[in-house]
Amino acid sequence: MEKIKIQIPKKSDYISTLRLTTSSIASKIGFDIDALEDIKMLISEVCIFLIKNFKDDKNPIELKYILQNDKISISILDTNIKEINYDIEDMSIMIIKSLADDVLIKNNEINITKNKLI
Amino acid sequence: MGLEIKKEVVDDVYEVTPVGEIDIMSSEEFKKEINKIIEEKKDIKINGEKIEYMDSTGLGVLISLLKNTKENDKKIIIKNLKPNIYKLFNITGLTKVFEIE
């Protein structure tokens, strides 16, 4: 099991950087192209959701990646806010919930897991 | 990577071909271009074959385009979407809302 931590400014300018970085990290454990596309989309939508719905952006977004043989788990923490409220009809939330194998939203943290197809 | 928008009028239909990524950085520019096209009050065809990536902000622009064209009594058709982009329309329920070829 490997762990990676990253923090980036809470700004839309950095989403494409994060998309590529996350795809590169996920490729370490051998996800196929389709799964990598899903993972890129997932990380973008989590950031878009946070940027669009919670304007306070003084602090960076903190990301923790946990790589295992058969899955990647990413925790995205926004220390600018205390509680993440969301509408299930929000387009980003719909995309996140359908592309991830597991989603947990608690306090100011979003946790997503993507399993590797074996 | 960015976004370039090609457009031409063929048989009185506005054909729009976005080239590149329609994401949170480029969707404002996409919206501006689309708004100019709406003013022409023609049927619109979006050719998706050169859209490499799209996120929810890009979908948002297309939804507002759809509302506007309906108000003007015009049609919008989306064609040639790549599978990864079509998937995005599918999971957000938009395949039922848009006419997709």
Q: What attributes characterize this protein structure?
A:
heterodimer, A: 118 residues, alpha+beta, Heat Shock Protein 90, 3 helices, globular, B: 101 residues, alpha/beta, six-stranded mixed β-sheet, 6 strands
Task: Furnish the topology, listing elements before pairings.
The complex is a heterodimer of chains A (118) and B (101).
Chain A: E1 2-8, H1 15-27, H2 33-53, E2 61-67, E3 71-78, H3 91-99, E4 102-106, E5 109-115
Antiparallel strand pairs in A: 1-2, 2-3, 3-5, 4-5
Chain B: E1 3-10, E2 13-22, H1 27-39, E3 43-47, E4 51-54, H2 56-71, E5 76-79, H3 83-91, E6 99-100
Parallel strand pairs in B: 2-3, 2-4, 3-5, 5-6
Antiparallel strand pairs in B: 1-2
Helix pairs in contact in B: 1-2
Model description:
The complex is a heterodimer of chains A (118) and B (101). Chain A is of the alpha+beta class. Chain A has one domain (2-115): 2-Layer Sandwich (Heat Shock Protein 90). Chain A has helices at 15-27, 33-53, 91-99, and strands at residues 2-8, 61-67, 71-78, 102-106, 109-115. A five-stranded antiparallel β-sheet of chain A has the order 1-2-3-5-4, with helices on one face. The mean pLDDT of chain A is 96. By secondary structure, chain B is α/β, with parallel strands linked by helices. Chain B is built from three helices and six strands. In chain B, strands 1, 2, 3, 4, 5 and 6 form a six-stranded mixed β-sheet that branches. The longest helix of chain B is centred in the middle third of the chain and has 16 residues, at 56-71. Chain B is globular. The N and C termini of chain B lie far apart (27 Å). Chains A and B meet through helix 2 and helix 3 of A and helix 2 and helix 3 of B.
